[in-house]
Design a protein that fits this description.
Two copies of one chain form a homodimer. Chain A is an alpha/beta fold and 454 residues long. Chain A has three domains: 18-155 and 327-344, 3-Layer(aba) Sandwich (Rossmann fold); 163-321, Dihydrodipicolinate Reductase, domain 2 (2-Layer Sandwich); 364-451, 2-Layer Sandwich (Alpha-Beta Plaits). Chain A is built from 14 helices and 16 strands. Chain A has helices at 12-17, 32-51, 85-90, 106-116, 126-142, 159-166, 181-193, 197-206, 215-218, 221-235, 254-262, 325-342, 383-394, 426-437, and strands at 23-28, 58-64, 81-82, 96-99, 121-123, 147-148, 172-178, 245-246, 265-275, 281-291, 303-310, 314-321, 368-378, 398-402, 414-425, 447-451. In chain A, strands 7, 8, 9, 10, 11, 12, 13, 14, 15 and 16 form a ten-stranded mixed β-sheet that branches. In chain A, strands 3-2-1-4-5-6 form a six-stranded parallel β-sheet, with helices on both faces. In chain A, strand 1, helix 2 and strand 2 form a beta-alpha-beta unit. At the A-B interface, helix 1, helix 2, helix 6, strand 12 and helix 12 of A face helix 1, helix 2, helix 6, strand 12 and helix 12 of B. Bound molecules: NADP nicotinamide-adenine-dinucleotide phosphate (2 copies). The site of one NADP nicotinamide-adenine-dinucleotide phosphate (NAP) has 22 residues of chain B, from helix 2. One NADP nicotinamide-adenine-dinucleotide phosphate binds at residues 29-34, 64-67, 70, 100-102, 106, 124-125, 151, 155, 323-324, 328 of chain A. Chains A, B: Residues 29-150 form the Aspartate/homoserine dehydrogenase NAD-binding domain. Chains A, B: Its EC number is 1.1.1.3.
Chain lengths: 454, 454
Amino acid sequence: MTRFALSPPAGRDEARRVKCSTLGIGLAGLGTVGSGVVLALQRNSDLITDRTGGTVRLKVAKALVRNPAKARAADLPADAITTDWQELVADPAVDIVVELIGGTDTAFDIVAAALKAGKPVVTGNKALLAERGTELFALSKEHDTPIHFEAAVAGGIPIIKTVQESFVGNRILSMTGIINGTSNYILERMANAGLEFSEALKEAQDLGYAEADPALDVNGWDAAHKAILLATLAYGFSIDPTKVYVAGIEQVRPIDIEFATRLGYVVKLLAVVREHDDGSIEVRVQPSFIPKSHILASVHGVFNAVAVHGDAAGESLFYGSGAGQDPTASSAVADLVEAARSLRQPDGHRGFLPYKEAGALVPVEETTTAYYVRFDVTDRPGVVAEIAAKLAAAGIGISGTHSPVNPETPDADFVDMVFQLHSCPFGLLQETLTEIEGLDCVNSSPVVFRIEKL
Amino acid sequence: MTRFALSPPAGRDEARRVKCSTLGIGLAGLGTVGSGVVLALQRNSDLITDRTGGTVRLKVAKALVRNPAKARAADLPADAITTDWQELVADPAVDIVVELIGGTDTAFDIVAAALKAGKPVVTGNKALLAERGTELFALSKEHDTPIHFEAAVAGGIPIIKTVQESFVGNRILSMTGIINGTSNYILERMANAGLEFSEALKEAQDLGYAEADPALDVNGWDAAHKAILLATLAYGFSIDPTKVYVAGIEQVRPIDIEFATRLGYVVKLLAVVREHDDGSIEVRVQPSFIPKSHILASVHGVFNAVAVHGDAAGESLFYGSGAGQDPTASSAVADLVEAARSLRQPDGHRGFLPYKEAGALVPVEETTTAYYVRFDVTDRPGVVAEIAAKLAAAGIGISGTHSPVNPETPDADFVDMVFQLHSCPFGLLQETLTEIEGLDCVNSSPVVFRIEKL
Ligand SMILES: NC(=O)c1ccc[n+]([C@@H]2O[C@H](COP(=O)([O-])OP(=O)(O)OC[C@H]3O[C@@H](n4cnc5c(N)ncnc54)[C@H](OP(=O)(O)O)[C@@H]3O)[C@@H](O)[C@H]2O)c1
Ligand SMILES: NC(=O)c1ccc[n+]([C@@H]2O[C@H](COP(=O)([O-])OP(=O)(O)OC[C@H]3O[C@@H](n4cnc5c(N)ncnc54)[C@H](OP(=O)(O)O)[C@@H]3O)[C@@H](O)[C@H]2O)c1
């Protein structure tokens, strides 16, 4: 066993000499977040240097865009702008590369090239890391150069650092989060203003919350990418996105929200990550019913929150702005400081390194909650009995049934029929619902919401 | 301007060689938190090594107690126990010193000696750092050896790392916290079970929440120590505790809580830290009325929460267990990992270094909120008019008055008279209340609660 000497390690004197040097940032992307990084550095650069004991001074050396002619929120000299990503990465004035262009192609090339050049990377790109993190973390390890990605999950909330550093001594029992602000906004507007899904989505787009192409927001995949990253950090292995169960909010209808309210719940797009007793990991994203009194039910609008349960820390909650220019830039700047420090550390890989070859994921069929199921049925006597018989045969308990009558069409032929079901494995429920779909009186696939016990 | 080379800095190879060495902890204190550290390390030591890429292995080399014969939650070999703190610090097997004995005398000596020996310190002692931090941070700087103190504020909530690292790129506009669990528990029991202060305190003691001597809990000073540390981190200068306004919860009576409820508020012991436009800092602790709908109002029992407002990150909230064996140990272990890493970094002072000589504190007289004031008055006609006249002369607006009649003594001579007042400087209020105290009809010093706009 080697012991540490009490004298300062070799290299300390050398580091002292470079105390006041400036580190150059290669900023790929000057859009919403990229501009925010420039502005934050302009605003608070002295403060950052002060707070780091004079060791860190950051300057944007070069920035990458598609269209150099575009007017931007942040001003940079014309000769600092390039449209050639290879020039950005190779520039000797660039010590750290910040990837904020989005997508998984050019972004991948940029991050990979930076790692190969030994330049630490800061990124906000959850899609890239969730889809292609395995390759990139391997490169990070090979070249002993960290990737920092606080900005990728929950905007301004320091959830990455919390899970990775503050909870380093905790087994993480679960993480439950509202981590897509757009969905949260839409669900809330449906609940409070009685809007249809499409109306609420339009509103979110008009307000600039949803992307021009809001597909990943509403189909659950943006949240899933973030959940995958959180699970990877907590459990140390790369998670195959194709093994993760993801459902979005497109199927939510005002009637579901009305029911939820009546039963004491709110509907939230929930990301659930949980370790089972056998060490396997449950990862899923879907619109869920959660108790109105739970603190996550109070996460409004485009805010995000993640509840983390550690074996030592107990129950914690981290809440804040889930996206937007300044909050996301706040996280990117914190990572930049981390990266700047890591450049001086001999043992300095502070990025994420997978530490397990693989781990077991719980198949979604084996995950268990209570459920709310809405059927579109033909309105005739016997319908409830037929459905109930199928559920009974499968051993699934019913805690309530409701048939909301639409006052405008009290004698409609097709009605919504809602069943609240006791806890059972999701696979059993799916099989049983497939059988029920075969019944004459059932007109389309039933819609399922989990009722989460938090 | 010196630039960084892209090749690994000198020292990296050497650090690689010591990859699997074990760092020895000198653990001063094996009480609630100290035992928790031993247990957490026993439980999750492999996980910690894995998560740090194999670079950190921690072992308790020596532990300090007063009474070696005492049975403890955590088992250590007899030869690892000492009652001599100097032996602990000097032991060559001790690389990092953890101070968990409490108090400001021996604890000071231990921390100072460790810093002088170049051994990083981890402590949970807010009283020590708030009262004598100036001396210790100076020693930390002189000997280039960090003090880590995540466990000192809000138990298992990583609020120190958040303010210091995650928000490094933010000007901190305000921090508002419920950071004394015992007070919070007492106030809640008074509200929900109608207990008197003394009954609720007794209950908290029986449950082990309050200290045997709960003075610092209920007089507000435990929260004040934590607020001082948070303000010091956020603004970079040592704050003189004697300049901080601190009021505890001893004066809260059931009638105040009843009133708060009726008016849509809850009473919480609130720590408020806020930067004014001129750069001066407001730091104060007192029982306050906060709106029932605010998220801080949902912080129940012995939980803690801190709302942080950064200029970039926006509004955030950090919530979790404020104290207790495991949560506090969780923070101490995270700091141990940080300290272990810092031992290998040439530029590795990751502790706090004050970066301003001094800063201005806002005198409490100049801080402004609305108020609730309770007077003990003689019940005769004209009382309201006399008090109101004094307030009017001072230019303080009244938004409501209430005279709760006690159904058991409807004709008592002395009654409580409550005034709700518009915003004004605290100093003006105090002067005016002194005048009002001089009135014949007022029988004792009025009790003041701030009504906070959050
Ligand atoms: N927006 C948020 O609130 C938020 C929050 C968290 C994470 N993120 C993540 O942060 C990343 C950036 O998001 P954003 O909202 O800032 O995007 P954005 O506003 O669309 O900006 C993208 C920027 O990258 C540049 N760019 C895109 N493709 C390029 C290419 N192939 N070559 C050169 N330049 C290219 C664009 O140049 P032009 O300006 O010339 O078109 C633009 O400046 C994404 O990964 C996103 O998921 C965003
Ligand atoms: N308890 C919490 O939830 C909590 C939360 C946050 C921070 N903290 C802070 O953590 C620190 C420790 O708190 P704690 O609750 O663990 O205290 P504790 O249970 O009273 O334990 C104190 C330990 O220190 C030893 N000790 C005390 N004075 C000593 C001396 N002069 N010489 C040698 N050993 C001495 C005691 O030895 P014996 O066992 O032999 O008496 C005991 O093992 C305090 O600064 C506290 O403010 C505590």
